[in-house]
Amino acid sequence: MLSLVTVLTLALQQSVADTSPFRALALPAPSRTRGAAGMPGPEYWQQRADYVIRATLDTGRQILTGSEHIHYVNHSPDSLAFVWVQIEQNIFAPNSITYALDQPPLAFAGGALFDFTGKGFVGGITIDRFQAAGRALKRTEYGTMMRVELATPLGPGRAIDFDVAWHFPVPPYGGGRMGRIGSRLYEIGQWYPRMTVYDDVRGWNPLPYIGAGEFYHEYGDYDVTLTLPAGFLVAATGTVLNPLMVWTPEQRARLVRARSSTKGMAIVTSAEATANGARRTPGTKTWHFTAHRVRDFAWAASPDYRWDASGWHGILVQTFYRPSATPWEEANRMARFTIQHFSETWGTYPWPQATTVEGLIEGMEYPMITFVPSLPKREDQFWVLMHEFGHEWFPMMVGSDERRYPWMDEGFNTFIDYGATEGYFAGTAYGDTVRRELLTAYAASAVPGREQPMIDKPVEQRDLAWAAYQKPALMLTVLRDAVLGRETFQRAMREYVRRWAFKHPQPADFFRTIENIAGKDLDWFWREWVYTTARLDQAVDSVGTRGDTTLVYLSNRAQMVLPLTLELRYADGTRETRAYPIEMWNLGSRFTARVASGKQVVGATVDPKLVYPDSDRGNNSWGR
Ligand SMILES: [Zn+2]
Predict the structure, then answer these.
(1) Rounded to an integer, what distance in angstroms lies between the CA atom of residue 202 and that of residue 401?
(2) What distance, in Å, lies between the first and last C-alpha atoms of the chain?
(3) How far, in Å, is the centroid of ligand 1 from the Cα of 388?
(4) CA of 410 to the centre of ligand 1 (A)
(5) How far is the CA of 473 from the centre of ligand 1 (A)?
(6) How far is the CA of 411 from the centre of ligand 1 (A)?
(7) pLDDT tens digits, 406-448
(8) Which of 115, 154, 319, 564 is the most exposed place for a label (fewest CB within 10 A)?
């Protein structure tokens, strides 16, 4: 039987152990599919979904009608009695979760509002046919998700071909991700029924599409045929297969020159765009696109587009915009810089073309194509255009689960965005200081009691701009600048991209990759930043002397631990910076730095370069 004293002692030890920042993080055990070192295991598998889609846009009735052939390959070790299919147009159906909740717009980074509804538009998709081997399959719709029963279970290694037909009314405003301007401009995403991911972690991933959580898709090849009014110019994921049918000889000749041009060249000039827009062209035209190894397909169309193009290392960089859009003449330069910068820094862009389209969407990414608005301020224009292209790396290439972990795509992307912006605007006040926004955002958003851990799902986040964008970008900045150092961080991050390109990484795969390459146990770091809202408060408590030695009494006053940088100022005017490793906090929350230089210490400051989100800077310095 334990004595009362023993119980109290144990309780005390327990509470010390509970508050230790260094206890191990409970990650899923490594497996044959996901290895202990963070790489895909020898038995890693993922499903494959190839699509052949034929769609026709009726700009009079505003109806998009399609037929679709899905070739689905079961690489899992499981037999599948049913499949889950995403039918995301149902976010605009009257009984959607979004409409039932009267989903309010999401306040975003101070001023902006993100409205994920159709702003009162009532639509939704009608599935006209869903068959396999000529037989209709029983299906049950759950809003934006549909379960389809297979006639016989699909065994491991087996494939099935679905024959699908559907139609839906095109919303004018499609939840900030798709839509149209009258019948002059269409930006189309979330449009065709597509396979939900089946993975080794959760099996099916049928989380509903409510708005804030984006996508989690299988990779595959696409063959897409789009029939539109003949006067429209179409931009899409993929490569045009029938250039002779859809482009003029002049456009084709200009494209050849643009491919090897470092500067954006007009494929459709401003005058031509204006003339095209005014012309009545009867009939329809059919565009044929193919895309290899992508996780989605989107497109845009208008009779009014100007079209610029340039090339970088064989990649065609394209910008489509209306003559009224400014500053879109610079957009091609911005786009080309972005594709080059991200390729050189994080791994080469893997597709033949990169397109950005100006229109009503405030910023949205799809493979090889992004939707970006015209913004009056050049810095903002670059940021949004570049940010959407950053998504070609996270999550188009590194295919993480955005419906659960937006910090792994929006967040990683926002981090790399700061590097691109520092590059494009190098030498300007904006370029040299832009990353400081992250500490400003910390002060505004990391409010105790209100802040949520970034591991919470996007639809649960009240401050998505912070939890999914800025905080993870700050996390990686601190990891790079204060924990790993640039070279190690860069190598680890690039390796993460390389290992998980065209695959489905989970948080643990990222953590393990970074830790293995850095040679550091970072459980404490991930717990603080990803799983909790721990705050940092490093302090200089006081300074004393013992003989020739100056004693600088340091403390860690909040829950978050980080290595400590101490700047000492001496009476003779010199300064010295000392770095203390994270292990200092193994010894407790107080630490005494001993300075035996013989010189008189007149000042001591922690985090002198203002790298950390220190919640109380008032206690960071001692002396003058
Ligand atoms: Zn984004």
Answers:
(1) 11
(2) 58
(3) 6
(4) 5
(5) 12
(6) 8
(7) 999 999 999 999 999 999 999 999 999 999 999 999 999 999 9
(8) 115
